[in-house]
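We modelled the chain as a single entity of 248 amino acids. Its sequence is:
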Amino acid sequence: MKNLDRQTFRQPRAALPLVTALLLLLPGLAGATPFFQLDIEPGDMQGNFNVPRFTLRNISTASEEIVGFSITIGDSDACFFDFVAGPDSAPMGEPGHFSSEIRTGARLATGDRTNDRSGGDLIAWVFDDFQVSEALVFQVDIDPMSALDGGDQSVDARYAFANNGTAANSAIQVLFSNGASARQVFQDSNDLPPKAFRFTGEGRLPVESIGSLPPIQTAPPVPEPTAALLFGFGFLAVATRRPRDRAA
């Protein structure tokens, strides 16, 4: 894939000697790390970024499953998630291979192309049996707020994710079956928006510090896998509520 904006979690330097020592003492754990990869590409051959295509992959090096995923809209005053087409899975099996979903805002409806005008600013899912080497593929329609009043229904999603002035940038969070969490935030670009995005994230346990250098962000605490899903996604929902929602 060309022209990818790569943003990757990295191990803090201060932690390297400790990690190395642990791996020498516990060779069975060497290389066992929860990892995800998320590609966001145009939704068609014309490079349309109004309905971008997402591919979420579990690239963990051991047996950690992905148990949760969420993404915020970023500029929630100007744009919203309209509908989700899918999810489709490849090579995960039949759609619905994972058993439970949490839905906030955007509607999860396989093949649905109807404008639901919900104004959703968070997509959050819980997965069952999302194993290593498997991938989830889906598309998300992003519309401007003017669509709620019958206006234009097309927007370049790259300006909803980032490069949106003083508005917050979109955030991605992935949770793993061992309790680890990985969080990435879209970064503004000084040039033209990239033609595609690629995020790779290493899941970290709550006791570890991810660091503070951009674009690395510290993940919220994850006390238990199940509680983490509810806490993490609830935190994103509150943090990304539009000002008018808070005032209501």
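As a brief sanity check on the tokenised model: Residues 33-247 form one domain. Confidence is low (pLDDT under 50) at residues 1-31, 88-115, 207-231, 234-240.
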